[in-house]
């Protein structure tokens, strides 16, 4: 059996995969993958194993025994989010996930598009449509998923600014732990009385639904609901805003593809979103952990080895995606691991897809001739964020015909 001293030599040096943006990330990962399906890479001052093919990343997500989520999340998010689904395993995880799943099913989320999600997209666009130019990250993509979550929770519009600040600060936990702890405290203080009220007077919002659920005789306690609601910010808002931004960045820098979408939005918007998720998945380099020494898929992994599930490398695996660096919505495939897999697979994938499809439809409808501002390609580039796990554009300076 391998032990902690036997992790192979580094396959690459000079870049820390935990903290540093690598402007040539895709080329770097492709070079490594051409040598073997995984690589030993520098990660937060130690060595990690990055899994680089779709087969390995998909298998790793399924293997909760070898790479249990609970080996990392209590440390990486526990202090601010609490004991979330991601910290659970086995029966506890199965029951808790079943208790929160119903409102996130495909049909339930599709039913939200017209009454809840589309009006939010229009409201945000109303604020700048007449102006002819905007930064879509600052004025649309960041705000949109937070507004959707606030509305799902049945919270008043006036509290949206606080929600957006908490979302931003929780997102930045690895960079500013104090702000994240403060956001966690403030949100919990704000939402606790709301939860108590919904227990007494339930409505048709998400919190009231969670309060009423019962699986195998078990119900959600306050602590479980509060942890779940805190998790909705990093899991549900940040991922979606980065992904929407990356897809817009891809379309705006590939005008031929944007023309295809414009020509047949009803058919092509969903494929543009799917290809955006493949081309630049927001959860790009997901850190996990291997607690026990093991030989897995022929790889000797010492105990306590940090792992990177390199979804972004899996999504450009030439064995699955021919000419993988080309952004091409005519592939018409949903990438297999953008939403994770196995027991901890994303709960919100259907909601995320409906949100992004709705947003893109509204933006194209309301902003005729939408295009990147001349010379803004570098600003709109997709880059690594908050450590290097997540990716998205920092700004999207655009203009349109008014
Ligand atoms: C484009 C948008 C999204 C992407 C790419 C995404 C991706 C992911 C990935 C990769 C995981 C697995 C993490 C792991 O195994 O360690 C995950 C888990 C999760 N996601 Fe998403 N997500 C998105 C949107 C959402 C939304 C909108 C929600 C809810 C409102 C959500 C809720 C969750 C939850 C609760 C989990 C944890 C599930 C568990 O541990 O059982 N996500 N997501």
TrEMBL record:
It holds the Pfam family p450. This is Cytochrome P450. The keyword Transport does not apply. Keywords: Heme, Iron, Metal-binding, Monooxygenase, Oxidoreductase. It comes from the Bacteria. Belongs to the cytochrome P450 family.
